[in-house]
Structure formats: structure tokens, C-alpha cells
Amino acid sequence: MGDAPKIPPQSQDSMPADEYKMEPAPDYTPRHPGSGKLKGKVALITGGDSGIGRATSVLFAREGAKIAIAYLEESRDAEETRKLIEAEGSECLLIEGDLGSKENCEAAVGRTREQFGQIDVLINNAAQQWIDEDFANLSEEMMRRMIDSNVMAYMFMTQAALPHLKEGAAIVNTTSVNAFKGNNSLITYSTTRGASLAFSRSMASLLADKGIRVNAVAPGPIWTPFIPGSMPPEMVEDFGKAVPMNRAGQPWEVATAFLFLASSDGSYFTGQTLHPNGGMIVGA
């Protein structure tokens, strides 16, 4: 990939943060021509407005899928992603709302089916993250906010989508390298990502006989709005340098893992996790 771009100190006061404010801009661009791997499919992607979700949305569109994006409130990023999807010759539906609410998850699924008539791929990716500076005094509100976003939303979305998923459908959940190795400054976040990992494995077992595959992707340090939105500027500077590849990953480098698991390329994968993490060795 060549030299990694230098990441200067920066921070934002919102979570999720805004991609358009990041310097340098995350790289979402697919690297290869599409080959129709998702032709005729509809993908519902949570957190598809930015970061890994944006890169996955654009890649899936290039591969022929129509895209529904569910996001919290980052309308400027979402509109930009819609333009990118349409530039790939596909269609995009934007759905704003807090997915920690079961009602909103059901509405997102309903709107997707109303617009496109089907759902073939569910990508549970939207999440929130904060540094646990003082875990002993971390507020119940903050804990529940992360659990609602990172755990309950995945379960609610899956519940809502399941009646509409047919044999051959795929669910891919985002987890994290921190679910495997732990992180003493991201205790709550890492715990929620452990939950999404266990959820993926359990649902894979439940749905195998229905021909629905469920897998997970566990990114390492990726340059997304998570980083300036949750870390102080001094931690953001040169983010990702500690991994063996000596750089942060880019969203497009994670999107390819989602495509593999969502398409027929991954037809013999269920209950598994892919690890785009720059060389960190963790238990599978």
C-alpha cells in the first residue's frame, strides 16, 4: 500500500464523530472492478454512513447490491455515501435513527423491504466507543449507552430481519481485536465487542440448518471516525503505529472481509471471524 499517511493530533466532541472533519480523510475506495458478486442482492448496513460502513457500502454497490444505510444522526456523511453508491450505478436508501431502540430497528427493516422488496445481507456494524478513563466511576448511563448501541442494536436488527431472510442470506457482525486481547482503556467497549462475537457464533449455530450464514469481522486499529471521536489528540497522533505493519488500516481494507463473508466466496464459512488487524496475533 505504500507509505501510510501521517495522522496529526485531532479530536471531535461527538460520538459517532464525522468523517468529513478527519485529516487525512479515511480511504474507502474499492481497489478492483466489480464482478457481480452481489448482483440482485439487497444489503442493509448499519453505520453505513462513514468509516468501515461507508467502505463496505460502496464496495457492495460496486458488486451489484442495492444498499440501505441505517445511521444515528450523521446526515452529511450519509448523504456523501449515498452519492458514492449512486456513482457506482446502484441505489441507496438512508434511514436515520437510534438503533438502540427495537422500534427503530423494526422500522429500518420495514423501510428497506418497502423500498427494495427484500433483504439478503445484514451487516451489523454501527457502534459507539469511549475511553474508560476511570472505570470504577464510569456512569451507568455511559455503560448502557454503549451496550444499547453495540449489543442490543445487533440483536434487535437481527430479530427484525430474520423473518425476511431466505436460504443463502448472510449476516456479518462487526466485533473487534479487543474482544480477543482485551483493552484496559476500553473495558466497556471491549466487553460489548465480546458480546457481538458470542452473538455471531450462537446465531451461526442456530441458523445453519436454514442456510443462513452468520460470521464476524474483528478489525484492529482502523482510521475511522471512532478514533478522533473517542480519543484525546495525543493518542490520535500516529494512530496504529504499534501493530506489526506499523500503520493504521484503512476502511477499504476491512470492507473486503465483509464482502467475502457476505458473498458466495464465503459459502463454507459460518460462525467464523476474519481479522484485518495489521498483524496482531490473537486467538481465533
Automatic annotation (TrEMBL):
Keywords: Oxidoreductase. GO terms for molecular function: oxidoreductase activity, acting on CH-OH group of donors. Its EC number is 1.-.-.-. It holds the Pfam family adh_short_C2. Residues 1-38 are annotated as: Disordered. The keyword Cytoplasm does not apply. InterPro entries: NAD(P)-bd_dom_sf (IPR036291), SDR_fam (IPR002347). Belongs to the short-chain dehydrogenases/reductases (SDR) family. This is General stress protein 39. It comes from Jannaschia seosinensis.
